[in-house]
Each structure stands twice: as C-alpha cells, then as structure tokens.
Design brief:
Distance between the termini: 32 Å
Order of helices and strands: HEEHHHHH
Number of helices: 6
Low-confidence stretches: none
Structural class: mainly alpha
Radius of gyration: 16 Å
C-alpha cells in the first residue's frame, strides 16, 4: 500500500473532504496485492526488497517522484510486477505515473499560493 500506484488510486477515488475517504464500491476495483494469492517466489522477493528498503531514509514523496528516487522506483516496479503488469512496460508506465504526480504537485503548490 506504499506504492505510487496505490496513492494514485486513492487520489482518483477519494471523496472531497478534510480527510481522504473512499467509497466502498471503489475499493473493489483497486489493484492491491493479496498475500494469499502471491506465488512463494514473489512473496520472497517482496520481503527481501522490504528488508533492504526499510534501512533507507526516503526523502519527501515529492522529491522521490521528481528525482526518480531509485528505491521508490524499485518498490513501484516490484509492486506492478507482482500485480501482473508486463515487466517490459513497467518503466514507461512509471514514467507516465511520475509525470502525472509531478503535475499534481505543481497544481497543489499553485493552489496553496492562492490560498495564502
């Protein structure tokens, strides 16, 4: 649930409110890993990745996205692969996803300037 893909799903389906709420029906369409359905090799690879990445200090999410922070990209690539996305298409998908988040960060910054 710490992937950029998950965050994008939350932002797309959130209910406008002070808190992020999500309609129950939207959850049924979320792409989320089900540990019970994962092959043992995928589980093992994800756990190894978690062990390695858990020792790294991550910068802000904005910095991770804008600077294409390698550990963030590894995490997102692994999640997408575990969800069944074609490995050869993942780099392009991540580039598009990160570009969209960069634009969203810029829009939010502009919005915050206007509310000051």
């Amino acid at each position: 649930m710490n992937s950029t893909l998950h965050l994008s799903q939350v932002l797309v389906n959130k209910i406008e409110d002070v808190w992020i709420n999500i309609h129950q029906y939207a959850l049924a369409d979320y792409k989320v890993l089900n540990p019970d359905n994962l092959e043992d090799g995928i589980k093992r690879d994800l756990l190894k990745l978690y062990e390695r990445l858990s020792k790294i200090d991550f910068p802000s999410l904005e910095e991770q996205i804008k600077n294409r922070f390698k550990p963030r990209m590894e995490l997102d690539s692994a999640i997408l692969a575990a969800l069944g996305f074609e490995r050869s298409k993942i780099p392009k998908l991540l580039e598009q996803l990160y570009d969209a988040f960069e634009n969203e960060f810029d829009v939010l910054k502009e919005f915050m300037k206007q509310t000051e």
